[in-house]
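Quick one: structure for this chain?
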Amino acid sequence: MNHRIPSRMLALRLGLIVAGLTGMLARATETENLNLSVLPAPAKVAIDGKFDDWDLTAGILACSDAENLRDQYSVWYHAMYDAENLYVLARWKDPTPLNNPGVKGDHGFAGDCLQFRTVTTDGAGKERTAHMTFWKLREGGDLMDISYGQDFKGGNIPDAKTEGAQQAFQKNADPSAGSGQAGKGYVQEIAVPWKLLTADKQPLKAGARMVMTLEPNFTAGAIGRITIKDLFKPGVAIDRVFTFQGPACWGYATLAKAGNLKPPRSIRLSDGREFDVTMEGGLPVVNWTGLILSKDLPGFKPVRFAMPFDGYVSLNFFAPDGTVARQLLNCAFFAKGEHEVKWDGLTTPYWRTPGQPVEPGAYTWKAIAHKGIGLRLRGWACNGGSAPWDSSLTSNWGGDHGVPFSCTTDGEKVYLGWTGAEAGKAVVACDLQGNVQWKHLHGGMGGAEVVAVDNGIVYVDK
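Got it. Here's what it folds into:
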């Protein structure tokens, strides 16, 4: 909901030519935590979906949009170890917890799912890469899938519980019931035996270092998907799309000799800023002061307004004839309370680029504020029978990693090609009314930058 801020009238006798700066747009900054401390576990860790036996001081928060989504879609990720297991704890913030659309046999990463990847080195210097995909099934039960090898060709354990791995889930209680766990979400607690992670099946010991990266996935709505990539190595280029194929950017996870970090580990964003963490009631809490910044505006005519909440403000000045003379603020963040900005008396052909001095006269201003704007699909137009994105495993129109790029026809069908596809299809054939007739993808990844048809045969070149 938008809220109007009471407007005022300003009298300008003359304009001054002053270079103006506008407030910053609402940002969307990803977390980018570098390396991880794996803390020693207590005498015994119960895999029960609870974390009262966990040391949470070295955890990292993973989020794709720290400014706007940290309280909706984010994960606190923690790791511990002992002589038997690597332990992982994921504390999810999720408005629709455990609504995974998948069943056994589906790809777990298509919905609510924790993926993390490790590279260990044994005493003989032999490496082992493991890709973990752990999730709860819609039909009941859960899976702990481990695939080996950087290229996934080193073998697979479809359910690591048969080899001694453990996993437990627990939804957060309703905060209105006084549980103290504010917000929707769930807990995922994991134990993976070292014998499944190291080439020699021996445990890593205190002081040892392995490689690790983190990819939590969320079901958005009924069948949508949000994926987050985090835990990287400092000083290297990061691939946030095909992270699973780029171990060079995965972070280091060091088995610490002692836990109970003081102070707890800070949280780092992709722009390099770090935010302090304190322990409150046994849980890590981030001090987000300064997360969203607004720039001061140089000028000579002050405008004062009161924000009813933390949120975003857009503010326009109007000429005597009612037209917009200057767009001074555009989705600029301000905290709750009293504020003052200044106008330099310039027009606004574009809000980021002030124009010429306005004519003398009486000018008014109006502003609206909101807590943040989200997106929700209400429908679409010109749909050829199925949605042109990953709406399900069978109905997406074309490529999910590229753009529509090529088109040809033989007079009976139209053949469309996308530059890249994985879950989608790189080639789509439609009838002349736009109804999909068939779709095709060659191999696990493909593209169709050139499509031709001759005598009933479709030719494709990536």
